[in-house]
Amino acid sequence: MLTTTAVVATQAPARYAKQLLSHLGRKAKVEPVSEPEPAGRLVFGYGTGQVLPGTDALVLIASADDHEALDRLQDVLGRHLERFGARNELKVAWGPVTTE
User: What is the CATH number of the domain that holds 16?
Assistant: First the structure.
């Protein structure tokens, strides 16, 4: 399993998490994660994306079986969040890929 993380600084991480989960939840299954609210896991046919709001950042974790699927997942999560946060100039920068 390949995994990468993006930490996106924002003053409204919970709002963006809720919006991203709601919007992408129309195309993917949303599973709750324990903490913090409104955290969730999006389950796509090609991988999973965790959406975890923190104090002053939104953490996105993308996991997939291969690089093509991981790239697709990063694009979907990042593109939508940047569109939602365009007014606040949110930018998603993914970290290095790790193997689990």
Answer: 3.30.310.50
